[in-house]
Amino acid sequence: MKKFNFRKVLDGLTASSPGSGSNSGGGAGSGPGHPAGTAGVLREEIQETLTSDYFQICKTVRHGFPYQPTALAFDPVQKILAIGTRTGAIRILGRPGVDCYCQHESGAAVLQLQFLINEGALVSASSDDTLHLWNLRQKRPAILHSLKFNRERITYCHLPFQSKWLYVGTERGNTHIVNIESFILSGYVIMWNKAIELSTKTHPGPVVHLSDSPRDEGKLLIGYENGTVVFWDLKSKRAELRVYYDEAIHSIDWHHEGKQFMCSHSDGSLTLWNLKSPSRPLQTTIPHGKSSREGRKSESCKPILKVEYKTCRNSEPFIIFSGGLSYDKACRRPSLTIMHGKAITVLEMDHPIVEFLTLCETPYPNEFQEPYAVVVLLEKDLIVVDLTQSNFPIFENPYPMDIHESPVTCTAYFADCPPDLILVLYSIGVKHKKQGYSNKEWPISGGAWNLGTQTYPEIIITGHADGSIKFWDASAITLQMLYKLKTSKVFEKQKLGEGKQTCEIVEEDPYAIQMIYWCPESRIFCVSGVSAYVIIYKFSRHEITTEIVSLEVRLQYDIEDIITPEPETSPPFPDLSSQLPSKSLSGSTNTVASEGVTKDSIPCLNVKTRPVRMPPGYQAELVIQLVWVDGEPPQQITSLSVSSAYGIVAFGNCSGLAVVDFIQKTVLLSMGTIDLYRSSDLYQRQPRSPRKNKQFIADNFCMRGLSNFYPDLTKRIRTSYQSLTELNDSPVPLELERCKSPTADHVNGHCTSPTSQSCGSGKRLSSADVTKINRWGGRPPFRKAQSAACMEISLPVTAEEIRENSYNRSRSSSISSIDKDSKEAITALYFMESFSRKNDSTISPCLFVGTSLGMVLIISLNLPSTDEQRFTEPVMVLPSGTFLSLKGAVLTFSCMDRTGGLMQPPYEVWRDPNNIDENEKSWRRKLVMNSSFPSQEIGDHQYTIICSEKQAKVFSLPSQTCLYVHNITETSFILQADVVVMCNSACLACFCANGHIMIMSLPSLRPMLDVNYLPLTDMRIARTFCFTNEGQALYLVSPTEIQRLTYSQEMCDNLQDMLGDLFTPIETPEAQNRGFLKGLFGGSGQTFDREELFGEASAGRASRSLAQHIPGPGGIEGMKGAAGGVIGELTRARIALDERGQRLGELEEKTAGMMTSAEAFSKHAHELMLKYKDKKWYQF
What pTM did the predictor assign? Predict the structure, then answer.
């Protein structure tokens, strides 16, 4: 434990300039945790308890649907499911809580998966022609063996039940055999030219099917792509029979008796073959084909990609297949067809079918299969169909497979939140669940899982492109959806053709969620969308019907407007008539748009004006929309913060800042960024000539610096987040323009009274007011080049900007440098009880504002003193004149008290706003101003932590002295930074664009962890990465999956106990008694010895050049590497004890049986001895 002394710098050393507080740490104090103070007296002694031993990076679990699935397998005894993907990943699923992710190092696509049934192992075949054997008897599967084929491409694999020999078909038409135990290739090979007739002149094509006969294990059925089927006798090494069909084969399945098999073909037909008459099919059907007029042959249909033929003891067999629809129905969705007797049921799917499997009661292929469910793997979903009910309902999926139901656009993660929230959200959300599911239990129920030692509640919130919000219970490394909120319900539905007039600037998804702010204690929820709107929600258990209150804010800024106005036309406080034109909003003014109309003071979306029924849950309290200004659309919101204690929401964009009172429904402040500086603008922006092309400038100003890191992303960044990775090489010019502000004429740039309507920055509109205005109802403006901050990406700082941040700027700089500095976005906002001005003696409500140029401004909030006055008296909002500065765009703020404890922002205790039982008159707002320490114990100073995309600084307030500064990166930039709590101590967590995750102690900014975790390869990661308390973090690793990780050493050590077991000891079910006559006449009476036929002694060794054996890191060595530490050793010991206990139990049963037999034998022997005891030898 190390102690750090903070020394107070003399006020005279920092009083020379507003930025001198940070300047003191910008030079000599550039090292890690270097104290910037050089003189003073002992200020405070803070003990930091965190050390580097507390931190370690480790992936924990992956949630969601496997991205780009390719293969499917099921273990009918263990009842676990495996899904392979195009990226080389394998997801293994069991009962809820059993969800394992493993990855092939090569990243090659998974072609096929085969379980070693009830053996705790899995074989995967990948597109790089490699077979892998995975050990599933450990919580993190590892590869035991690999076999790389060098000269042939793998096309199909088959592993018979309770066999250790794997059949492998290749593209050349050959069939090889692999020993599963040693993963060595046998010398036994079935060559394609020996399998087909010698008279055949063409190659049969790749092997598309392999399976042994249910009747005789010594016979192998080989299907070739061109329509040839060979029934191969393994002992005699010859083809027993051959089948030819003039259509290509896609799949084959046996009847359980082994006398018939069914094939699916490329013309949409199914053929049933009998082994006794191979010359022609026993039956040919085209299930979805229309019969021709002559009645001879049905028309061709789409290929049937797979068919399964499953028999039942008490009913007709099931024939289940995918595809096969008629070509004349091109618009029909992908379907799964179930034929049961004469009934044909077509199940239409929302996505293309990748693979399906029929789940049967028995693992033995020679018994009645008794199918009970079908697992259907779609491109973007996993469904299970219940076959035991006539209407074939689907099972309710317990896995979070619908994260991507609409593309995820933003995420938020909350650990150790109030424990009652999960139950409350679930109770509301369960009322809106879909109905009609099967009443049977989920059939994939294998594995074992327990809660483990982690018990604190966790909630994940995801925002989506369709405007929906999903709340997830993420406790104990699981994920379950609690509640879904649709924000689009507050807006009117768009009519066809409304968006045509703005199609040149409109993209998809006008309701896409951009930013999320949630206060779990007060249950205040706030979102901002890409159409420049903010919605504030309050939580209620009661349903209400009410009108939605709407406000419109005019937030656009241009420097020329404050330089060139005429005195007679620029009153200091313009009235509302100057903000909203008296003419119809759709009428023409002075600028020609796409239809000769200038859009001005028009929001992008229409809020519903009629009363709206709001069900229990989150209900819209206020909708705030930015409006068009002089034909230019509003810029998207780049920062958002809400204070439930103050009743204020603040948001900013590239134009300026808006502060709204959501209790009184009024706009308190709306001004351009330059107005916030008042007379202390460090950048000294100067007027210049008018713009030549406003729209071009508005489209490109925010991409400054992003092209330096991602030059190919600056043209086609969209909010249709599925296409974020569509790249075009189009560097953005560095010309930057200034924006407009309707408040440029305000005195000192602040509004004195919201209730007097003197704030010209916005207009308070109730639902009745909205009906009086003819709003534009088209789709929202959305430029293809957005602000990077809109996607939670900090803009990288160019070399020129770094030089400019040295605070030695020349006042006679060139016009180009003035252009770059003129546009300044609001990138971070933070409400806190703090010292707004230097040398203040008491704390007061403040709003910290961070900008893209590294400037920090503190705005004072003067709130009414009593609850009664809060609902009637105005809130005073005034820039304090306090400025701090850092390198790069500001990302986050936080405050610590004098003892080093993290201060939480004040909040209002939640109360149901629609509870009719409570007396409204006696109700008072219950505020928690400081959750850790009472305000009187905060003392005469506090510490403020500010992190930008380049550096972090710790300031002492009110003296504004920079105590510590740490330059985090010089060559890259930080994407996400948060002050989090771990082990009851605060630390700063950062994720850098170069892939590094860094943890720094607070307040000394000592580096605790720096790991090169994940290079930024996708904008999706930057947009969704977020830290939270207790050492947790997450990001969207693919469009359909969330990856969770931990940076806590304690959780890494306990992770093995938290993960589920994939393999549990289960006795293999016994085979059914076939009966004497059936065993005598039903097939081969002798057992088939594969070892004798395929072993090295009889078959020899395969050529070494054909395949290469690669030992894997699995087994006990792989388990040691995967587990590690004492917990891993204990886990292995426990597994060994379980297995030993099971064996001892079996031995005890056998011993008891032997003892019973011995006692019976002893009794009979004693009776025999007594019987013949007195007899002579000659009497026998």
Answer: 0.79
